[in-house]
Design a protein that fits this description.
Helix content is 55%, strand content 6%. It is an alpha+beta fold.
Length: 678
């Protein structure tokens, strides 16, 4: 039986997850029971003697399995943000069960027959745009996932899906274990030369927390990034860079090379089985880009503009490093270090100069003020709902009428049970049922510098942009206003999902926005105008190199998923061939990106990494509109909220975008902003 505290709606305020009442031992029996309940709901649809209708089949299907969805969101979110060996072991047991259950639905002939009857009569039905989209999505969910296959091939598909679910989990576990395993203890203070005081203090505090004497550095971003950016000791920068670049590429039990080959091979087999040429063809059929050819053409067009700029920037950096310290050849562990020195020289701008103006609490408040000015949202920190960790902040989000818009969780600091990076997720989607608008529970998870004994958490400018990025995703989830859960919030095409996140980053560069929250943590002084000007001036610094880097990741992704990967015998050799035309730094034999490329081998970005650049075209074009009318213009903000943020996946993304903008996006806006357009 499901433990009564885990039955939804939860017996909690706002129906939030009762984290502290859940024991690890509760998960497996709860999942099994929730799967059983979901199967009963599906069965009720199948045995319904009434003729299939949109309501009794399509709608019923979308609202089925709520218990399972809620417990899945809790469990898998914790597996990313607060995991341990027990949770990881349970995940390995649960994932095949969920994969099997998913196949039980999509491969169920009787259920598909009912869906198909409704789908075939769609032109005679009086459906709203959202209902038509849902019908299309449900039908494709079956047809694109094996419903039309003969029995023997359905069994094959089940086997592939089961293996893939386990391999992806194993991939992520290995990367996390590698991140946690590495430690670099420094005992000679002279080796800390160049490092900011805050970084040194954090490293000392970390060493003390582990009963070690000295300064401890790890592969967590708040430790890793400052070290490779500021440490004068080149050998130690090299050590840290190679450690980060060789994650799960050491031929030991945490090695991911076979996992990469196997995941790519199984995805290709699966696509072939379903009648697609490659995994990329399968994925992109449901994206704005539509085909691998279009993605390649998009990336190549960007490459044409970015490569000359990147090569020029790299050559200038190499000349600068040689003049400064007689470095003959720039290596990967030199890039951030000399880039920072050059940036300081060109713009008199140093992240350490900016950090005092970006106290974490002030930046969070800044994001809230921006959301209030644009969308009339109010954020109130609350202490009366359960958390999964003491670091987590919880907020109640309301509109001007005081109505609940969303519950919001924010989790900002690294810890051993949390994977690196930053992401947005949800614990409950928004939907409308029985005339009640059930509001979402949204979460963002980041890895920022922790407060030390003498300083609060002070963010680099990159971290400020990251917070705004994830908060943009969060707004997409919070402002959702759709009927059906599977079309709500961020349930959109993946090359559209980055638009709300990336557009919000733009406010970080605007004087009007910065003056609202960028105040010195000690003096309260508002960030000086000259610093704002320098932030804007430096916004396109090394943009060619940054763009080339993103393009290279997109090309690597497409190389794994846009062709038959069975010809690939060696991960490193394959990767080196892909990077040959887009690499600036010399090759390092010890490193490999694919073995820790979690976005595409664990997350949902396979055949979709290009989405970041694709969405940048949308966001640059969309922000042009804001700039034309004023960055806090209510009319433009309302159009963005009503046509993009609230609509989720209820209509074609380009249709939604054009309703907001009045036209299709122009790539020139991105190239102009990036300084790549002459």
């Amino acid at each position: 039986m499901i433990k009564k505290e885990l039955v939804t709606p939860f017996n909690t305020k706002y129906n939030t997850p009762p984290f502290s009442n859940i024991e690890n031992s509760d998960y497996l029996p709860t999942f099994k029971e929730a799967i059983k309940l979901a199967k009963q709901e599906i069965n009720a649809i199948i045995i319904n003697e009434d003729s299939p209708t949109f309501k009794n089949t399509i709608e019923a299907l979308d609202f089925s399995g709520e218990q399972l969805d809620r417990i899945s969101s809790i469990f898998f979110n914790l597996n990313s943000a607060e995991t341990n060996e027990t949770i990881q072991k349970i995940a390995q047991e649960i994932s095949p069960l969920l994969s099997e259950f998913s196949n039980d639905i999509t491969l169920n002939e009787d259920l598909f027959k009912r869906v198909k009857i409704v789908y075939d009569s769609k032109n005679t039905l009086d459906l709203t745009t959202e209902q038509r989209t849902l019908l299309e999505k449900k039908y494709k969910g079956f047809s694109r996932n094996g419903a039309n296959l003969p029995e023997d091939e359905k069994s094959q598909l089940r086997e592939i899906d089961k293996k893939l679910s386990q391999l992806k989990l194993k991939f992520g576990e290995n990367v996390l274990a590698e991140t946690n395993k590495f430690e670099m203890l420094i005992t000679d203070e002279s080796d800390l030369s160049g490092l900011p005081e805050g970084t040194k203090e954090a490293a000392k505090q970390l060493a003390e927390s582990k009963n070690k004497t000295g300064w401890l550095f790890t592969l967590d971003y708040p430790s890793y990034i400052p070290f490779v950016t500021y440490a004068d000791n080149r050998e130690l920068r090299k050590k840290l860079t190679l450690a980060a670049g060789s994650k799960s590429f050491k031929g030991d039990d945490l090695d991911n090379q076979n996992n990469v080959l196997e995941i790519a091979k199984l995805r290709h087999e699966r696509a072939n089985l379903l009648g697609y040429k490659t995994h990329a063809h399968f994925v992109l059929e449901e994206r704005m880009a539509e085909t691998p050819e279009k993605v390649q053409s998009f990336l190549n067009e960007l490459l044409e503009n970015a490569k000359p700029a990147a090569e020029k920037e790299f050559n200038n950096l190499e000349v600068f490093a040689k003049e400064l310290e007689d470095i003959n050849r720039l290596e990967k562990w030199d890039g951030s270090y000399y880039s920072e020195k050059l940036k300081q020289k060109l713009f008199s701008l140093d992240d350490e100069l900016l950090k005092p103006y970006f106290k974490l609490e002030n930046v969070i408040n800044g994001a809230f003020i921006v959301a209030n000015k644009l969308f009339d949202l109010n954020f109130e920190e609350i202490q009366d709902i359960d958390k999964y960790h003491d670091d987590v902040l919880t907020y109640k989000v309301t509109n001007t009428n005081g109505d609940l818009v969303s519950i919001f969780y924010a989790d900002f600091f690294p810890r051993p049970g949390k994977r690196n990076g930053a992401w947005m997720t949800s614990y409950k989607p928004q939907y409308i049922q029985d005339n009640k608008n059930s509001r979402p529970h949204i979460s963002i998870v980041c890895n920022f510098t922790k407060p030390t004994k003498s300083k609060p958490s002070l963010l680099t400018f990159n971290e400020v942009a990251t917070l705004f990025h994830e908060f943009g995703h969060a707004l997409h989830g919070m402002l959702a206003n759709t009927t059906y859960p599977s079309l709500s919030g961020t349930s959109v095409y993946w090359d559209f999902v980055e638009l709300p996140s990336q557009i919000l980053e733009n406010w970080c560069y605007e004087k009007e926005a910065l003056e609202l929250f960028a105040t010195h943590y000690e003096t309260g002084e508002v960030i000086p105008m000259d610093l704002i000007e320098k932030i804007k001036e430096s916004a396109t610094f090394h943009e060619g190199m940054q763009t080339l880097r993103q393009i290279s990741f997109g090309l690597l992704d497409m190389s794994w998923h846009g062709q038959n990967p069975s010809r690939i015998k060696d991960v490193k050799t394959h990767e080196s061939n892909v990077f040959k035309n887009v690499s600036l730094y010399p090759e390092t034999k010890e490193t490999c990106m694919s073995t820790a490329f979690s976005h595409i081998f664990q997350g949902g970005y396979s055949s979709g990494y290009y989405s970041y650049k694709w969405a940048e075209v949308l966001d640059a074009d969309a922000f042009e509109y804001f700039k034309e009318e004023g960055i806090f213009d209510k009319n433009v903000a309302t159009k963005f909220m009503e046509n993009v943020l609230s609509q989720g996946g209820t209509d074609n993304p380009m249709t939604l975008y054009k309703r907001f903008r009045g036209q299709e996006p122009k790539p020139e806006a991105l190239l102009k902003r990036a300084g790549l357009l002459k």
